[in-house]
Records
---
Amino acid sequence: MRIDERVFEAIACGEVKNYSAGLNFICPAIDLSARKLRQKDRVSAKEYKKFLREYVWIFQYFTNPGFNLKDFKFPANHLSKTSRFEAESADFADLLYHAYRCSLAHGDPIDGAFEFSESQDQSADRITKIKLDGSIIQFPPTFYWSAIALVVFCRSNNDVETNSQYYLSWDAHRFPVDFCWGAEDRLRRFFKTRPVLTVEIDTANEYPRTIIAS
């Protein structure tokens, strides 16, 4: 499948909140984007995760503006032995690669290290949570859309041309996908003019709750 076909399939899955199925499309699309950027036929696990970390700023803004996703470490026990990960802690790139991309590539069962959880607080649309629930990390769905945004805006995909009605959202702003392929410089300028939101992490409860406040 072409990159644009994978992205559109992932968007369709996201619209019906079938995030695990959507990652079957978006993880290989991230791989293809990294290969195009590095001008290689294939990228290693190290290169794949390095690529994700280079674009952590997209994950930061689309997942939780103000939350330090770059330096946040998760307990490695959230990755099972089948994930081939042996470090004591893991960042977002480790989770995405070892829990999904690696499992898909090797035909292993999906690790189940993290899942996506809709907020139950319908009165506060600016509150998102990253919850440690036993052996599972629950991310807000915005993390899923961040992965799609990475592929769309990555500069290696500026050669992609599409004609669709799809768009990505950030707050009240809409980014038409057809006009955003490879437009990472434009996205940087957009976020540069937006104030950074502050985040309070309440660890008094049974899980860290990230609260975004303007």
---
Amino acid sequence: MENRTGRTVSGLGRALLFLVLLVALAALFVAGLFIWWLSVELPNGADRARKADTENNQRLIDAAPGKLRDAAADGVITAGEVVHALDPHWTAARTTQHLQISTYYRVDPSDPALDQCIQYTVSIPLNASSTIGRRDLQPDSPECKELSGHVPDTAPDTPAA
């Protein structure tokens, strides 16, 4: 096969030309993928992470009453059981009728409006049939603001209150 100048193009030359064109096409494809990722996926990544954190917190919140009931079955709820059932940010107070445990769930440190505060009330005597009540607290309430940075300094086997 001859080119325009009258020279013969060898099989090796054609293969080299094909290889160069293939590499250029692959580079264009990779560059296109990178531009798509920068314009579409990267901006949506923070929203997906925030949504996943919110869903995870909701699963924790939904599972908490059952975990607290299991913890109460032996007649005492320890600090370790509260951390396992809820979150490290909690406080507890005990009256003659119930144990009141408040907890703070942080979703996004840059957006405190997404944070959740929940107050659980466990009936006394503590046992497997204790009832668990739940009350949502306003994130800007004094109780909730106090909880946001509070991590009790108690041993895991210490009673919660």
---
Amino acid sequence: MKNAIYLLAAALLLLILNSCSDDSGTDPSDELQGATFQFEDGMEWDYELYIDDEPSGGLFATTKSNGKLLGKESYKYYVGTSKMNIPVYNFTLRSIDSSGYYQTNLTGIENHGYFFPELKNQWIKYIDFENDSWTQFDLDLDSTFKDENRYRGHFKLSGQKISNSIINYKGKQHYSTVYSVETDLKILQNGYNYKISKRKLEITVLAYIGIYKVQSFEDGVKSDSYQLLIDHK
């Protein structure tokens, strides 16, 4: 079980995103564009990790302003098992504006930038606040690298708004939106399968608060673990 928790925490380092500002509950205007949120310096979020629907440990996250990066206001996003256990030198870089939520590690998604240079030094859009569906990358690969092997393949990152609903959180009714983001990767080395993966995250956003739930899928199979927001400041 400890290994499963560590793996989930590592995944959250890549794709958890949160914010909070005004705990004003529901807002009918949000129904026109889906629930949105923003980052501020020093935000804090507490999550419960679930495995097989059983509580399996906590997760604490916080932000620190990082200034302008690649044309956007950026934040360092830290994740630890508690407020007293935050890895100071281990963070991901995030940005949120009116168009959506973005993340970058400067080397590309899961280091796929080696094969797809277009993924390097880019803000990767994981949630689009303006459109019901989006495709940021749809890339083809056919190259011979220094190892003298020929690599052919394809990478696609796309997402969509799935549904809107009302969620009870801390005794208040909040408007929420479920967003989905998918990565589809296939790389052949000299005609043989080299890397193949199809991954999806379903991210539930509470209006004005941030991420409420993150559920992952691998090759169409839902993970038995997920995270759920229990408090924020």
